[in-house]
Fold this protein.
Amino acid sequence: MSTHLLLVDDDRTFASLAATVLRHEGFRVTLAHSLHDARAALSRQAPEVVVLDRRLPDGDGIHFLPELRAQFPDTAVMMVTAHGDIASAVDAIKQGARDYLSKPVELDDLVLRARRAAADLQLHERLRQAESELGGRRRLLRPRAPAMVSALQMIERIATAPRSPVLITGETGAGKEVLARHLHNVQGGQGPFVHVNCAALPSSLVESELFGHERGAFTDARAARRGLVEVADGGILFLDEIGELPLSLQAKLLTFLDQGAFRRLGGTTELTSNARVVTATNRDLTREVAEGRFREDLYFRLSVFRVEIPPLRQRREDVLPLAESLLVELCAELGRRPVDFTPAARARLERYPFPGNVRELRNVLERALVLEPGPALELQALEPRGPPGPAAVDPDSFVVGGPPRALDDVERLYVKHVLGRLEGRRMEAAKVLGLSYPTFLRKLEES
């Protein structure tokens, strides 16, 4: 995705010319000609880079800099000062500006510095993701539950066949992506790990995103673009929520799996990629096949190796160690001193069913760290609210203790259960369940 740059300058001629050049270099540029315009633009979307003139019609850019840095600490700010005004430049750097440019601004210099700022931000983000992924691997690599130990042992054996597809199944939030990243790590971490959420891709752009396109393949295709299959060459292409992939593209994916070859949208040249395809789903793909929503031949090809992650309620011995590890990470992320759980909180953790699995556990702890200021967390949000009802049923009671049910019925009950726990907050429930909001609404309508 291109870098978003906000250019704040009251010289409209220069700003228009600079924006044209920056857009040609791949930046998404928003223009503002005053501090008022800048605040309005920032309220709509946070940019990665800001080029800020000092002298503006309604104020001094240097005086606006602390406000900007406080609101967007990760945004790189480049200050534009008058030629020879070294004192202002030094002041800007002290107040958090990354760099400064002297007027008259040379466009080549502006582009070069903007590129450097964007590259540094991308590197910082990759390092942050790597630290997060490392934490995720640490949580995964020391499970106590026999089912998770078996899953990890299988991943280690699968790593010796680096081209074969892998299908990871399990409920939402159980850790399917973490397991896929562990496979990448066991394989030596060579090549990129490219994560694609099939449910989040607009249906009209799925083919272009996966396989790329040639110039002129469709409206606004002004240049050729590599797809994620090409980007993942030599590494792992992780297709999350594979059940959401449109039928029209399943045949093309099958061809790639069989031959390692594909064509860009609008192209005639056959290209190759040595990416290993790892897919994940919380759906019953055999039912999807029976109902005509998923190709049978693709299902068999994807499931050469199949690994199932058990839900958190079926590996109770992992809950407390996971919670303790997550608590340490979250305290560091939120800048809070280390805290512990009260005995009551530990008891709540041990008996709560966690329908949202590890993702819900993390969200519960993050919420508690923000709302509970004491030296130890109580986790009172895990207590049942009111008498048990359809929306507050313990999932174990109807999965294990109750009569057999169809998987779709269980899924609908989970949706209601989580929504009830969150007091009807739909957006938050969708996040806990790991579903896109449209998918969540569809499941809610079905219940």
Q: What stands out?
A: Residues 133-139, 385-402 have pLDDT under 50 and may be disordered. The CA atoms of residues 168 and 176 lie 6 Å apart.
